[in-house]
Write a structure and sequence with these properties.
The complex is a heterodimer of chains A (about 170) and B (about 120).
Chain A: H1 6-26, H2 30-50, H3 54-78, H4 81-86, H5 94-114, H6 131-140, H7 148-169
Helix pairs in contact in A: 1-2, 2-3
Chain B: H1 2-5, H2 9-29, H3 33-59, H4 73-103
Helix pairs in contact in B: 2-3, 3-4
Classes of the chains: A mainly alpha (about 170), B mainly alpha (about 120).
């Protein structure tokens, strides 16, 4: 099935993401920033759906918008926000920061305009297949499971992160 | 106009670059550690968007080049990046809580214990 109104949804979702990102880095209140970030993440899940990646879209919603952002909101509640709202929000290097970001943006623009032939332009109309099954085959399958070892390493990384978070947040060990 | 109405992989890459820039500006200029961590999440999301967009492009490549319907390596990498982001957020926020307990602030300019 070909997607309908792809340009409309692309520009809608990308505008939501860009505006959400701008709000994240400009709001004083960290809770408002978190809300804007959740909006941007949900819009990005929509973009993943447009790219025929339903599994990554589901992981994005469940893990990012559901898990990580709840963690952020918990920590914002634990630390006092009344005082930080009154403080100066941007540091003294903001001019240097903007200059560095502008240089990076100029680099991106230069790369994208000069090397246009390097980047894929072609339109891909690929029907919906068995995305979840294919991802699972790459992760777990005995014969073509290229990423099985990496998957185990990722679980080890999560274990280390759990222990690290507990050790850091505990008052006395 | 034609190139605006025809959404190609390059459009997604440009969107990812814009998000990456927003994240970099946030990391470099904000003073609140929580918002700096959120900007890092923005950067990781920009990388994920690039990975998934190029994965879809790769699916359209011929099979002898490694393309085809099963070529979902970019999406698998995006899942690994999401795992990484979860670990990073957990440890970073744990460090932030320990820091707040000691210094009673979340201002990143006060994080200077290891400075000399």
């Amino acid at each position: 099935m070909n997607p309908v109104a792809t340009p409309f949804f692309f520009y809608l979702l990308s505008a939501t993401m860009i505006i959400g990102g701008i709000l994240v880095i400009t709001r004083k209140n960290a809770v408002h920033s978190a809300m804007a970030l959740i909006t941007a993440l949900l819009a990005q899940a929509g973009i993943y759906l447009m790219l025929y990646a339903p599994f990554v879209a589901g992981v994005q919603i469940i893990l990012y918008a559901g898990g990580i952002m709840v963690l952020f909101l918990f920590v914002i509640m634990l630390i006092s926000i009344e005082r930080t709202v009154k403080e100066r929000q941007f540091n003294k290097q903001w001019l240097v920061g903007i200059a560095a970001a502008a240089a990076l943006g100029g680099l991106f623009i230069a790369v994208y305009t000069k090397g246009k032939s390097l980047f894929p332009e072609g339109r891909v109309t690929y029907g919906e297949g068995q995305n979840v099954q294919d991802v699972a085959a790459l992760l777990y399958d005995q014969h073509q499971g290229t990423y099985m070892f990496s998957f185990e390493i990722a679980s080890l990384l999560l274990l280390v992160a759990i222990i690290g978070a507990v050790v850091m947040a505990k008052k006395r060990i | 106009m034609e190139s605006m109405l025809h959404i190609s992989t390059l459009h997604y890459l440009v969107l990812g670059a814009a998000l990456f820039l927003l994240g970099v500006i946030g990391v470099l200029t904000r003073r609140n550690v929580v918002i700096v961590l959120m900007s890092i999440e923005l950067i990781l999301n920009a990388v994920n968007l690039n990975l998934v967009a190029l994965s879809r492009y790769w699916q359209g490549m011929p099979a002898y080049l490694g393309g085809g319907p099963g070529a979902l390596h970019g999406q698998v990498f995006a899942i690994f990046v999401i795992t990484d982001a979860a670990a990073e957020a957990a440890v970073g926020l744990g460090i932030l809580i320990a820091f707040f307990r000691n210094k009673e602030t979340v201002n990143i300019d006060e994080v200077n214990l290891l400075k000399w």
